[in-house]
Sequence to fold (725 residues):
Amino acid sequence: MSELLAPAGDVLSARTAIDCGADAVYLGLTSFSARAGAHNFDISELESFAKYAHSLGVKVYVAMNTLVKDGELSDFINCAVAAHNAGADAIIMQDVFLGKFLKQNCPQMTLHLSTQAGVNNVYGARLAKKYGFSRVILARETPFSEIEKIASVIETEVFVQGALCTCFSGQCYLSSFAGGNSGNRGRCKQPCRKLYSIDRAGFENPAYALSPSDLCLGEDIAKFAKAGVYSFKIEGRMRRPEYIAAAVGYYRALLDGVEPAHGLSALKRTYNRGNYTKGLAFGQDKTFLSSAVQGHIGEFCGTVSVVNGKYVCLSSEECGEGDAFKILRSGKEVGGAVYGGRAKGGFILSSNVRLMNGDKAFITTDVALNERLLSRKKLKNIKVAVRVAEGEKLSASIEGREFFSDDAAASAVSRAITEEDVIRSFSKTDSYPFDVEITDVSICGSPFVPVSALNAFRRKAYSEYYKGFSDGISKISDAPALPKAATPQKNGRTAVIACDLRGVKADIGILKPVDYSAIDASLLKGFSGEKFLFLPPFFNGCELEGITEKLKYFDGVYCDGFWAAEWCAAVGKKLFAGSGFNIGNSLSLSYVDAEYIALSKELTFSEAAPLARSNTFYLSAGDIKVMDLLYCPFGKSCAKCDRRGVYTLTDESGRAFKLRRYECGRCMFELYNCVPLVAVQRFTGALVDCTLCDSSRVPPISGDESALKNYFKNYTSGHSKTPVL
Fold:
């Protein structure tokens, strides 16, 4: 048994998904949605759609998967309760700790942990289950070897189709620090889809260096099913209904063991970025990045020939009015075109761009295909039996449920009601998704029923039957009250992240290895404070086993992935919950079981100060990590790689972002903000990130603001003063 899960940015897309065979639909509300740019649903729209979906046996999941600040807690909880009461079959959340509170106080609520939480190993799965989540949506980067292990712990959902994030799930801050709009709060501006050059031979020219192709798992979905995956998810709440139709239809056929009618053609024509990749579950493929073309590339349909000043696409395709095309030359986009009429050997392309012989035309809008895709309709077959007896209330049996009219049938004076009258009335379905089969009409005596009364009874019977699909919800009477937040406490300690702790003076030193397979304990020599090992948010079981023996050099582990709470408990080490835990409210903070906690780096001073505790820290200076990349941006061209530790990624505005390479059995990369941070504060512990700093010249970490500004020269205050959207 498996589930095909489809996205819906609006009601039309949601209904399209159902019509084409989705088992479940996920959607966002007008607030707390990680796709704030979609139309989304208000509570009344959700309630209406949930009834519709449930009548057709389809589940509805509501994505409330943004990070929540302290002042938003009450609204978030009220919204989650309202969504549940409106018919949501599950709430999708990013904050595992906030989820724990909801499950404890609203046990009837079903929770799914968002891919933004970054579950990529069994420790994350175990903690999610312990906290009351019934399903985890795996990080898109989770290797296949880990998926079967996780599926044995908890119900598992994986992405099979759609856009990929270039950064590891939930750890992207590029939009936040480079543009003031947080991806973790649903407002990502997608700077990863822009042009960048890299200071490495062969990558100097501007390209879409961080832009992944769209994921298309295709027939490999069977491997995931065999591994125990339950739900197969299509990404695309920002996509058009015809794309939803094509994607759902394609995967419905694969899951049903049927050959898709036109293979990938419909998918490619409705949305296709980069001609698809299998993603990272099976290892990086050559098509993972779409560095030459951005956006919808469509499907190849012919080659351009310039004939008597006209652009003729040599093709056997039956194209028509309204069809649109993207033109590529030597693999790069040069412009667009539209259908301009028939021509010998093909059709004419109308374009404002000068086209050349040999240009390739890709169809991006196929009007006839879109009409076919959106013509499908799913209805619920219902068997109806009606009895009309003189002197009695009318009765209707719908799928075994009995319904009665308000008034009894009178005795006919002139014309009695007929079987045809009843069939004519009950064959109408009003706005309900019913396919009616009238199995029996029983007329007893000589009853008279006005047509208006017969129709009113039909409407009542169908309405009550339809309403019954959502009557089983165990509603929550009152939203749980928020506990009183703890009083802020001072913490004057310093913690430093560095690749070499020799010469560093701080209360806590966090060693960030260049190579995790060869952790060098000599880099701790002479450091007198507590020693922690930095772990990235993504680490699988084998990688964790590989470093376990090295833990003897450390008092604990600093990690940006919440799974580390479960792993540290298992290995008996202290946890420093990193800023990647994204702790931004007092409720979540109260549930974090860690020795030390770094608050979210997207908080202002005024937002972070009330969260200050004796064990909290705030990123106050140094390098700002904005991305964790689990793929090689150089396409795994290992034979030609210069294997440098740091590269520079430069955008079209000339901003230079440092790209750090490190190893843990394979190359991994971190991207840093174009300028470092100086945000000195006095309300809690200071966390200083010196990852990129010269180990022979450690920045002043005592909190001397003028000294820090003098050291870094060019710097930003980050979000310390201006709230992130």
